[in-house]
Design goal:
With 191 residues, the chain is α+β, with helices and mostly antiparallel strands. The chain has 3 helices and 6 strands; from the N terminus they run ααβαβββββ.
Length: 191
């Protein structure tokens, strides 16, 4: 190999090492993530779905454990379902949530929700793992939703459909537990 070829090769190698050590490519101060160091855009729809899943789990996915029922007092349900809970149940029940933006969209206006308690009863005491002896309190609600629905279709033939008197019925169940017996953790000795 000639002197000229070896000097070009060594200068190219030095230039590659200098670029590599500059911090812009390859080795840098700290951990190198390689291809995973490049930011990847996340769809807003994916982010919204994850946030909605967390919201529903936090608000409506847990069963509260309350104190024991008082003897002689009526056992009534805690509270009616919230409007947010009813509308989320409606979205889950329908096949098309909101459609595809700019192609097929649905909007609801003038929403009115009527909530009725249809059943409220307490099961006999039983043992629940990780909880202990408890009673399950059931509350069933019938929620009738009155609204006007506008459907915008943009393709293949643009048109708008308006249903002024749309009605949907959703059934929402609220369950919670009531502890039974001694709730003092210091008195749980078997003897």
């Amino acid at each position: 190999m000639s002197h000229k070829t070896s000097s070009i090769l060594s200068s190219t190698l030095l230039a590659l090492i200098a670029i590599n050590l500059s911090g812009c490519y390859g080795i840098s101060h700290g951990p190198n993530l390689g291809i995973f160091g490049i930011p990847i855009p996340v769809s807003p729809l994916t982010q919204k779905r994850l946030e909605d899943k967390f919201w529903e789990t936090e608000r409506y996915g847990r069963v509260p454990i309350l104190g024991p029922l008082t003897a002689g007092a009526p056992a009534r349900a805690l509270d009616m379902p919230s409007d947010d809970e009813v509308m989320r149940a409606l979205e889950r029940a329908r096949t098309t949530e909101g459609g595809v933006p700019f192609l097929y969209e649905k909007h609801r206006d003038d929403v009115r929700i009527v909530k009725e308690l249809i059943a409220d009863y307490v099961d006999p005491p039983r043992f629940y793992p990780l909880i202990g002896p408890a009673q399950l309190h059931h509350a069933h609600f019938k929620c009738t939703i009155y609204f006007s629905e506008t459907t915008n279709v943009s393709w293949p033939i643009p048109h708008r459909l308006v249903d002024q008197d749309a009605v949907e019925v959703i059934y929402v169940d609220h369950n919670h537990l009531h502890m039974v017996g001694n709730m003092d953790p210091g008195n749980n000795t078997p003897y």
